TrEMBL record:
Designated name of the protein: Integron integrase
InterPro entries, A to Z: CB, DNA_brk_join_enz, Integrase-like_cat_sf, Integrase_catalytic, Integrase_integron-type, Integrase_recombinase_N, Integrase_SAM-like_N, Tyrosine_recombinase_XerCD
Matches recorded under NCBIfam families: integrase_gron (TIGR02249)
Domain of life: Bacteria
Residue ranges of every copy of the Tyr recombinase domain listed in the record: 101-314
Alphabetical keyword list: DNA integration, DNA recombination, DNA-binding
Entries under Pfam families matching the protein: Phage_int_SAM_4 (PF13495), Phage_integrase (PF00589)
Keyword DNA-binding: yes
Residue ranges of every copy of the Core-binding (CB) domain listed in the record: 1-84
SUPFAM superfamilies (UniProt xref): DNA breaking-rejoining enzymes
Family from the record: Belongs to the 'phage' integrase family.
């Protein structure tokens, strides 16, 4: 079914509208799952009732997390609203249940311990996650043109929700970034001699045939190998795969005896937001740096540090 004309049409529409490959894979997965759930009926023969049944099935039978259910809903909403031009309206389905979970946050000392156990490249990767509040995918997709050391800023392209934003860039990372840029440039020069370079957005690669030779398009953290472009099939060099820093982090946690904490790459983004709020930064500023649409998403970090209590004292303090 993955190569069916219908799914290929959806894939083409996603690429035409500029959706990321990660979103494309997710949407195709959920649409295929939805069709299989309804015994291979074509979506044009189904509607809101079938979508509601599927989403309720995920919550009740599969016990999926609320964000997983939202991913399925987004995929099916795209299918019916954008592709089939049949808006679903108010579905009234069974929502997945999940209480509020406070994010795991590292202390500054714990961040320092982890960073000190990493090699030069991975030290820079996790320093960027922590100092700029990046997701791991955003960090690994950094191209040379996104970095502005003079202004201390970093452009984040096509992040979650297909949005761009600008965040802060620590000037203390300037020397490490310059060394990494030199390493990336050497890799690109060798690739260019063989006729290929960094992977490019499909439309841009078609329009500017020699863009792969421009250093501005090179990834700061290039992959160690060459592979086919997921759209064109042409040989190119992608950015480093996120499994590499994840494995490195796991080893670092064991070396620093921090295995009792459930730490992952996203923990450094949580720590970035929490430490900014603890330092007295405005929540709207933190919201903008993180790229959150709604400030309520950012407010979860005020619960981590207890700001939502607004200075309320415990009644025990009045007795002692």
């Amino acid at each position: 079914m993955s190569s069916s004309p219908f799914l290929n049409h959806i894939r083409s529409e996603l690429r035409l509208r500029g959706y990321s490959l990660k979103t494309e894979k997710s949407y195709i997965y959920w649409i295929r799952y939805f069709i299989c759930f309804h015994q291979l009926q074509h979506p044009t023969l189904m509607g809101a009732a079938e979508v509601r049944d599927f989403l309720s099935f995920l919550a009740i039978e599969k016990h999926v997390a609320i964000n997983t259910q939202k991913s399925a809903l987004n995929a099916l909403a795209f299918l019916y609203n954008k592709i089939l031009d049949r808006p679903l309206g108010d579905l009234g389905f069974q929502h997945a249940k999940q209480g509020r979970r406070l994010p795991i946050v590292l202390s500054p000392d714990e961040v320092q311990k982890i960073l000190s156990s990493l090699n030069v490249r991975d030290h820079l990767i996790f320093s960027l996650l922590y100092s700029s509040g990046l997701r791991i995918s955003e960090c690994l997709r950094i191209r040379i043109q996104d970095i502005n050391l003079e202004q201390g800023s970093l452009n984040v392209r096509c992040s979650k929700g297909n949005k761009d934003r600008t965040t802060i860039l620590s000037r203390k990372l300037a020397n490490a970034i310059k060394k990494q840029k030199t390493s990336a440039q050497a890799i690109q020069q060798e690739d260019n001699k063989k006729g290929y370079g960094p992977s490019l957005p499909f439309a841009l690669g078609k329009k500017y045939l020699n863009a792969f030779r421009q250093f501005s398009w090179m990834f700061l953290f290039p992959s160690s190998s060459i592979s086919p472009h997921p759209v064109t099939g042409e040989l190119c060099r992608h950015h480093l795969h996120d499994s590499v820093p994840r494995k490195t982090l796991k080893q670092a946690l064991q070396c620093t005896n921090l295995v009792e904490k459930k730490v992952n790459c996203h923990t450094f983004r949580h720590s970035f937001a929490t430490h900014l709020l603890m330092a007295g930064r405005d929540i709207r500023t933190v919201q903008e740096l993180l790229g959150h649409n709604d400030v309520s998403t950012t407010q979860i970090y005020t619960h981590v540090i207890g700001q939502h209590f607004s200075g309320t004292d415990s009644p025990l303090d009045q007795l002692l």
